[in-house]
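User: Can you help me understand a structure? I only have the sequence.
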Amino acid sequence: MAWSGTGTARSDLRFVRDHTELENAETNNPSWDQEILRDLVADRNVLSTMLSMGQIQLAIDYAGSIIESDNDARRVQAHCYQAFIYSSVGHHEALTSHVIDGLIPTTLKSLQIPPPLADALFAYYLDLIMSPENLRQLSDSSKIRFGDQLGLLASGNRDTHTKQADELADQAAIFYREANAIQAELDLLRSIVEQ
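Assistant: Let's start by predicting it. Here is the structure, written out as tokens:
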């Protein structure tokens, strides 16, 4: 997804990004590499400016360009912005898909996000997509698909993120239960026991 803003808006926002300076509270944070932190703050400033101007699609495109071109911390933050947008506009399917396909795997793989923050992001966004309001808005076929995806994600992270893998498997079972997919839930539980 390419950022498709007008030339003037693009140059104005690039100026904001290129001239971002860290404030004292940000520079005194020993958990972060200062160059990474500066990029995160600059991205935050640009994305927040777009959203405050009501340029939702521009913000989605800009975050998408970060996700495609960068890695690690900037990518995690861009995923968070996209999830925020989908949640704000009530796109439950897009939100759930984005969190499962992009945000959670990227957060689990991150080497730049401090572990307590990575854990908090993981828990927050998993809770968000598992909220009763979000679950109510999803079709049964979507719930089964998301259950399948969470089950695969749990299996793929069992060796490196045991606690999170257990949580992902638990939530996959809830998706199946919500869709009345009893056999899928039993198969998932069987695979967990066999691991």
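Now, to help you interpret it: Residues 1-9 have pLDDT under 50 and may be disordered. Residues 34-52 form the longest helix (19 residues). Let me know which part you'd like to focus on.
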